[in-house]
Amino acid sequence: MHVPYSELMDAHALECFVTIVDQGTFTKAADALHLTQPAVSAQIRRLEHVVGHRLLDRSVHGAVPSAAGRELLPAAREVLAALERARHALDAFGLELTGTLRLGSIPSVTTLDLPRALAALTAEHPKLAMRLTEGSIADLTRQVAVGTLDAAIIALPADPPTGVRFTTLTRSRLHIHLPLHHRFAGTRALSLRRLAGLDFATLPPGTATRTALDLAFTTLHLEPRIVFEASDPARVLAFTQAAGHPAVVPGIATAPGLSAVQLTQPTIESGIALATRDSAAERPAVDAFARQLMTAATPAWLT
Predict the structure, then answer these.
(1) Nearest C-alpha neighbor of 118 from the set 301, 278, 285
(2) 5-92 CATH, one of 3.40.50.700, 1.10.3720.10, 2.30.40.10, 1.10.10.10
């Protein structure tokens, strides 16, 4: 049957369902939610009626999600997380932010206009001070996890440590940029194994592009023949124009006299993400910074 979204997405009922799963019993969930057990049970009965399925299997030992409950659980968590983010955004709206926002970033970020985002945040909240430090992906995520940084811009692919979540800001496919006279120019795609046999230019370690590229080479047990590195993709392409060696940078945007060929087998994506603590008590300043970053993606390098 068709279930109206307004009935299904009842935040209170979903919260009761998720809390029971996390706590293991109706009694513990009621205590955590500061409700009576009959009130929690009533919310679950209503939710089960709306979805048309039993969501929890009950026993003397507690409650566990049924097959239908396991299907609903991830979506329920997403809905509650989205509502929490919306609440933080409204809390920050019109709020004069003060204090110091401690930020970290990898050394080179080419697909975000970070200075513009920081300037916009300063203009919006002039009493908010910001401190930016650079570091490796591992160091930055560790500092976010322990609380010495409020947020950090890191390169993908990477795995978040316990207590940290990654919000993807940009994602780009890697392309090989070749002089028009190169023997592989004009082809639709070039494999990583074929690239391994060429001298090429790319971005330095610590960047999103290099992180993804190094991982792909390691996975295939290949050694890259990198002859030039620069943190600015435009400089890498300028080297290719002058020296004739291929360049690996994100996206299809290229320079005069060059053609972009997609890197495949595997197709490699690089990206930039914002690392924050996986906590319901986000600082409004972090949310304000995240909103500015989402508008600061540099479209010329994206595909």
Answers:
(1) 285
(2) 1.10.10.10
